[in-house]
Amino acid sequence: MTDLTIVAETENNSLTVTTPNGNTHPAWGTSYDLATNVATPMSVTSNTFCAGGFSLANGSWAVFGGNQPTTYQGVAVKDKTNNPSGASPYDDQEGGEAIRMLTPCDDGSCQWQEGGAALTMTVGRRPAIRETLLMTRRASGGTLLLRGLGMGLSSFWAAIPMEGE
After folding, report:
1. Average pLDDT for residues 117-144, to the nearest whole number?
2. C-alpha distances in Å from residue 146, one per residue of 12, 34, 133
């Protein structure tokens, strides 16, 4: 294994990526080949600042939560004082409710999956503390999101089942 996968917060990185809908923005996800010293951008559309992630029992990676959409110098897009125009130069999405999944592949084509009903939490969370459930009644290797702040409002916990549960 010579690849390193990086997910970064929304910022103005020089490496760019074009999303499936044709928008180009700084890359916040990257696959880096340690043997060749080549970085390949990966599409991540939501802000991962303050997100928490780990590997699942099946070899996939999961990243939970994050932050609100931001503009230059980390100013929130909806901050009317510091961003009165509401400009969103990065076209980043709300990350607090996001679940991002990456299933490794051998051909270099793997991409982060995020959004939709299956990969969106009902409440925004940051930071998310998570544990892999090694012993469950079905020994599924599911995930338990132990706690986090509901975007600064309250603590929570939630169980995230594995596929087929």
Report:
1. 59
2. 32, 33, 11
CA angle centred on 80, ends 77 and 84, rounded to 5°: 85
Instruction: Give the three-class secondary structure for 73.
Output: helix
Nearest to 47 by CA among 100, 117, 96: 96
pTM of the model: 0.73
- Kindly tell me if the per-residue pLDDT of 82 is higher than 90: yes
Q: What angle do CA 23, 26, 93 make, to 5 degrees?
A: 65
How confident is residue 79, by pLDDT bands cut at 50, 70 and 90?
A: very high
Distance (Å, whole) CA 158 – CA 165: 15
The three-state secondary structure class of 74 is helix
8 A C-beta contact, residue 63 and residue 44: no
Please give the angle made by the CA atoms of 121, 83 and 87, to the nearest 5 degrees.
70
